Amino acid sequence: MMDFINFWKEKKLKEKFIVFIGVVLAVFQIYTALFGSFDALFQRIIHLGLSLLLVFFLFPAKKGKVLKAEKILNVLFIFCIIVSLCYLIYNYEWITVERFSLVTPVSSSEFILGFIFILLCLESVRRVVGIPLFIVTLIFLIYPLIGYYCPAIFHTRSMHWNELIDFNYLSSGGIFGIPLGVSATEIAVFIIFGSIMLHTGGSELINSIALSLAGKTIGGPAKVAVVASSLFGTISGSGVANVATTGCITIPMMKRAGYRPHFAGAVEAVASTGGQIMPPIMGAAAFVMSAFSGVPYSKIIIHAILPAILYYIALFSYVHLEARKLNLQPGVADLTFKESIKLYGHMILPIIVLIFFLIVGYTPRFSAGLGIVTALIVCQFKEATRLSLKKIFEALYDGARGMLIVVTSCAAAGIIVGSIDMTGLGPRFGNIFLYISGGNLQIALLVAAITGIILGMGLPTTPAYIVQVATIIPALIAMGLNPLVAHFFAFYYSCLSLITPPVAAAAYTAASIAEADGWKTGWTAFRLGFVSYLIPFIFAYKPTLLFIGSWWEIIIDFVTAFIGVYFIAVSFEGFMFYRIKVIIRLIALVVGIFLLLPSLLFSSIGAVLGAFLVLFVYLKRGENLKKATVN
User: Fold this and answer.
1) What angle do CA 364, 540, 608 make, to 5 degrees?
2) Which of 51, 196, 362, 479 has its CA 20 to 30 A from that of 401?
3) Cβ density class 600-616: b for 16+ within 10 Å, e for less
4) Angle at 185 between CA 491 and CA 365, to 5 degrees
5) Domain tally for the chain?
6) Whole-model pTM?
7) Is pLDDT above 90 for 50?
8) 570 within 8 A of 576, measured Cβ to Cβ
9) Is residue 561's pLDDT more than 80?
């Protein structure tokens, strides 16, 4: 207790207020996860309101020293947020029960408050997420006002600012729509869970177990990075944040083992990005996918299992072959498996509780809430993981701060989706999409993939996916694609932008830690993640990898794909038993692609070619060894 008292006394009044807001926000999310959410709009008002207060306290208008004028302006912004949201709460019954959205006239006070509130939401997006999402959101916000003057398919009816403010400020659409609803109920509590696990030793448990299991194998440190980053990434759900968290440990470890800096950074970037597609949690977008597709979250994580396994098998193959090619020696674990379990083993219980309650059918937020409570209880069992009151406050505050990028992104996504709904642009965009592709599904998928990656370059994964929900996905479904497959297709390419140059945010973050060239790291990450660019096309044509189809088809397609990703890794690494020539690498690439294709004919051809290739390379290995011995 004295530790907490001293911690609290050391802080200035402003710092105390910031920590208090963060802790209140985290406690609010945990309470509503365990005991049930409030009415939808009220839940979202509190969630967004507290988050915006933190944003204007923590994020400056621009990098550098904060001037006195800006401090005064931030206080004014905070006052406006409080007034505008208190108006909604005070008139809550009238707004939700008596008032008719887009029918009841907007009063002058509501217009002023709503206009200021929308501008402050945009400013929070600019400060927290960045200029690209700010510009995209601003364009979609203005579009309903100028759509009447736009030509052809972009033409829409004349709209007024009153309608925009009504929809975005006085209804459960727009800013307070589905994206923010998912953030307020599902995503936030998982981010807090990740923060609690980080502070209670959960990350140390993952790193220690990964190191003790894989550290002594060839390329062990890189395999540790893959295991640790995938496990922690599925909890954190943010590729860039995961790189920043686990990369500080794994990247130096890989460099010490002999991996080149750019390769070490690329491995961490790809492993961390994969956390968003790795069950059981899959980050923020998986909850949004459940909300928009109507497929229960428990089923989405089952459908995601096989593609995620192939993603990481490919990455394991790369790091193993790279280690063999460079003749790297096995690493030495700091802790044995037994020692890891002894120190941190009890911290696996929160994860088990979370997964168990997800599987038996409880809501994700309730499962995560129980996981948080379990973590706070079991961490007290041993000194290595014990949290004092001060550390509990820090964990809750860090969790609240960690959710700000998601909250602001979801508010922006609400504006985007709301404008598309108001103007009817979604169905018309689908017509544009059909026109560009000429009704050809192959071309449509290629255009959708490129669009998803481009959107993901400028937007975080969640809003990038949500934009496609309103535009690309309906068009793919109209062309005959299975709705679940269409959602997964768009979701994958929204994630992959994190390792796709020229943006490749996760790769560049890893490069800064590895002290490597960002451009080289980005393209290496693209190479290591190459298989993940092919997988969505594979399950688009035959969705057996999503557990859609007969069991024998699922097993055959997965096994052949499993082998195929290894041959692709061989092709890109240029190593199988020894360094292989270009012609053999090209044949290995063809074999890999044939095995990946969900066709019995192509898989059979690939299997035969692959067997002959392995035999040929193995026999040549013997000749090379003899020559080396003679020399």
Assistant:
1) 115
2) 362
3) eeebebbbebbeebbee
4) 90
5) 2
6) 0.74
7) yes
8) yes
9) yes
